[in-house]
Structures are given as C-alpha cells and as structure tokens.
Design a protein that fits this description.
186 residues, mainly alpha, 7 helices, 3 strands, 8% strand, elongated
Length: 186
C-alpha cells in the first residue's frame, strides 16, 4: 500500500521531497493507514529504480541538497493499477486476541478482564480522537473531497465502534462467568 499512497500524494500535491512526503502521510493518512514512516525513503528508492517516479536533486544556497520526487507516466499507470487492485481485495479480518481467548484456559479471568478493560479505554480514546479529527478535517477540506473523506472516517469509526461493542460485551461476559475460579490447574 505504501507505493499507492506515495504515488497518490505526489499526484495530488505535486513534486515533493522525502520529508514533505512523510509529513503529508502523517497529516493526511495517519487516521486510516499504519505506515511506518522510516520506510518511506526505502520505497522512494525502489520506486525510482523501477521508473514509477523520477528524482531531481536540488541545492538551494548553503542548505543541504534535496531530492524532489515526481510521478512518471509509468507511475501514473501503476497508481491506477494499484487503485483497481485495492477495490478487488477480499475482506477477511483477523484478530490476534482471538488466539488469546482460544488458549484462555492458561490465564486467569482477572487477566482477561483487566486486558479488556484497558482495551475498552484505548478504544474510547481512539474513537473520541478520530471523531474530533473528522469534524475538524471536514470543516477545512475542499467541498469535492468531503464525501469521500467522510466515507473513510465512517469506515474506521464503524470498525472501532464494533470493536468497542465486542470488547464491552466480552468484558461483561467474563465478569458474569460462573467459572471465574477456573485456570487454577495450569
């Protein structure tokens, strides 16, 4: 997904140097991506090597040389291909915590309850922050991007709300579990 985002940002915002691309990713994409920003430079080098982007070195006065990246025609074609690929992805989420519940007979219920309580608090904080960011973003973005921005925010809010509902229900089930004394044999 990183090449898709790099190409898309360069197409939307024009030629940029690596630091500007990282900054745009932080500002524009952090709500719905999990990109490790140090990997941006690695991807820029690879994308330049295969011809998706071109790089021009510029020196301004006494400042260090900067590399400015721009999308090539091949890169535009690749970007469109990547967009089409993402539309055809089969949705099948996985949840690492399910493995913990599968082997929960090796844990005390208190540990599960404490972990879920922490998870609930984190989810509530994330939801609050994401909703506030959506409200702020929608006020300032151009009208032509508002519908799709709302779609993206709602997609993530929907999943966080569903995760919160699951965590709260699971928390309640564990608190009511008549086998709270289990796990003493492990």
């Amino acid at each position: 997904m990183i090449p898709l985002y790099i190409l898309g940002l360069l197409l939307r915002f024009g030629p940029q140097h690596g630091y500007q691309i990282k900054k745009l990713m932080e500002e524009q994409l952090e709500d719905f991506t999990q990109i490790k920003l140090p990997t941006v430079y690695y991807h820029l080098e690879k994308m330049e090597a295969v011809g998706y982007i071109t790089a021009q070195r510029e020196k301004q006065g006494a400042r260090p040389e900067k590399t400015i990246y721009q999308v090539s025609t091949t890169g535009e074609d690749k970007f469109k291909e990547l967009l089409q690929q993402t539309l055809n992805i089969e949705y099948r989420p996985t949840f690492d915590i399910d493995g913990t519940f599968y082997f929960s007979d090796y844990l005390e219920n208190n540990e599960l309850i404490k972990s879920l309580s922490s998870h609930i608090a984190k989810l509530q904080k994330i939801l609050s922050s994401l909703e506030a960011h959506r409200n702020e973003t929608i006020r300032y973005i151009p009208e032509e991007y508002k519908t799709t921005a709302n779609i993206i925010f709602e997609h993530h809010l929907f999943h966080y709300r569903a995760e919160l509902a699951w965590a709260e229900k699971s928390f309640k089930s564990l608190k009511e579990d008549k086998f709270n004394g289990k796990n003493e044999n492990h």
